[in-house]
Amino acid sequence: MSDTTSPALQTALAYYQAWTSHDIDKAMSYIADDIVCDTPAGRLEGAEAYRAFMGPFVQIVTGAEMIAAFGDDETALVMYDTHTVPVASAPGAEYVTVKDGKINYSRFVFDRAPFDAARNAAS
Amino acid sequence: MSDTTSPALQTALAYYQAWTSHDIDKAMSYIADDIVCDTPAGRLEGAEAYRAFMGPFVQIVTGAEMIAAFGDDETALVMYDTHTVPVASAPGAEYVTVKDGKINYSRFVFDRAPFDAARNAAS
């Protein structure tokens, strides 16, 4: 499943390992200061905005399994399932570009609908 | 981006080419009769259910670009952006397993929220 000869995938997997272990500081060590990230809600720019996006999510993650992971020299693509406090199964996919061991672009795809529904049910 | 030495990816890309060209019959020629497909809304089983899921979506697609595509002997993982009538940018990711040139399992990840919002706005 994982071609660990891909430098970009190595970074993507180390990043995944960190955030799924709730270690946001370590996760951020793989994120470039000038990261650009396209999320379902729009574009984020810079590590501070990225941390503000990922931090709250990491706190509600209770588990994760990698579904598939591929990469080449400069890019990687992963899909995983996550288990979270409000949503039992919340799969996501991430495409990243990596430079000098840091993710400088990422595109996230995940379904916001169950999170919206959980929020509406709670309010 | 695309490792076309991967047989599974060849099938996934041929399938992608067909449905983004609005050719649902050709797209279905790459789908196994006993396909199992996990979508954001739940699990579908069998080609008929799959076609009922993809058919309406294919009709509203106005364009698509592949973002990343990888594969190995039996699996492939792709991420693409689609342009649709109700939602200008609707990226998705698909993990597939392929046997004998046909997709027999797929997992879709995409954001239902903008489609829900467009439907609510129209009603």
How would you sum up this structure, described in words?
2 copies of one chain form a homodimer. With 123 residues, chain A is of the alpha+beta class. Chain A has 4 helices and 6 strands; from the N terminus they run H-H-E-E-H-E-E-E-E-H. The first copy, chain A, has a 6-stranded mixed sheet with strand order 2-1-6-5-4-3, with helices on one face. The longest helix of chain A is centred in the N-terminal third of the chain and has 14 residues, at 7-20. Chain A binds chain B through residues 1, 3, 40, 67-72, 75, 77-79, 91-93, 95, 107, 109-114, 116, and chain B through 1, 3, 40, 67-72, 75, 77-79, 91-93, 95, 107, 109-114, 116.
- The fraction of residues in strands of chain A falls at 35-45%
Distance between the termini of chain A: 41 Å
Q: Give the count of helical stretches of chain A.
A: 4
Largest interface: A-B, 25 and 25 residues
Number of strands of chain A: 6
C-alpha Rg of chain A (nearest Å): 14 Å
Strand order of the largest sheet of chain A: 2-1-6-5-4-3
The SS-based structural class of chain A is: alpha+beta
Q: Any low-confidence stretches of chain A, pLDDT <50, length ≥5?
A: none
- Label the overall shape of chain A: globular
Largest sheet of chain A: 6 strands, mixed
Mean pLDDT of chain A: 95
**What is the oligomeric state here?**
homodimer
Q: Sketch the topology of chain A as an H/E string, one letter per element.
A: HHEEHEEEEH
- Helicity range of chain A: 25-40%
